[in-house]
Amino acid sequence: MSAEDQLQIRAVCSRAIGLGIVLGLISFGVSSAKVAPVKLSEVITKSELIVVGKVGSVASDSSAQQSAILEVEEAWRGAPGSTVRVSLEPTWPCDISRAIVAERGIFFLSRHADAQWHISHSGHGRMEIVGDQVAVSPMVLLPDEVGPSVTEVRKVPLQIMAFYVRAQVEKLGH
After folding, report:
1. Could you tell me which CATH number the domain at 38-172 has?
2. How many CB atoms lie within 10 A of CB 77?
């Protein structure tokens, strides 16, 4: 084997190794993508529809895409009608969107490229209501919190959450 052939083989091997490293870093970046904590005010701003309601049903369509039907009790932003169909399909690798039949909650919703409603902030815009308390994900920072120090679900009185969300919506002019 000539010196020139050896140089060509080394060049090809170097490119292959370089490509392998790049592809490895890209796949690592996608598989380890995480949702960063955001302020509740940002979740409100990015949600075109905010409703209090109960999950009436969860079903899969013919293509195995899951969705939920929300029975709307109250709309804090937008004009949804008595029910809203929400896609539970992930919009991001770490999307945790889900719905549990009969669960009551506040649902922060936004439309995506597929023209369907999705739970905002990769599923963290679903806040269960139990009694008069709202469960807030650690990925949603309340007005007095600074992340990422928040690590647990917090309980907030429903009346306080309603007041804050409505005030923020009013500031947005919607």
Report:
1. 2.40.50.120
2. 21
Q: How far is CA 151 from the centre of its chain?
A: 17
CA distance 34 to 44: 20
Nearest to 97 by CA among 78, 130, 120: 120
Q: What pLDDT score does 132 carry?
A: 97
Kindly state the DSSP code that residue 136 receives in the 8-state scheme. Answer: E
**161 sits in which H/E element:** helix 158-172
Q: What is the mean pLDDT of the chain?
A: 85
Range from 63-67, 141-145, 154-158 that averages highest in pLDDT: 154-158
**Can you tell me whether residue 98 is helix, strand or coil?**
coil
pTM score of the predicted model: 0.79
Q: In angstroms, rounded to a whole number, what is the distance separating the alpha carbons of residues 165 and 46?
A: 12
Measured between alpha carbons, how far is residue 5 from residues 10, 17, 76, 102, 134 in Å?
9, 18, 71, 70, 69
| Residue pLDDT, tens place only, 80-112 | 999 999 999 988 888 999 999 999 999 999 998
Domain ranges of the chain: 1-32, 38-172
Q: Distances from the Cα of 174 to the Cαs of 45, 47, 69, 78, 118, in angstroms?
A: 10, 11, 24, 8, 19
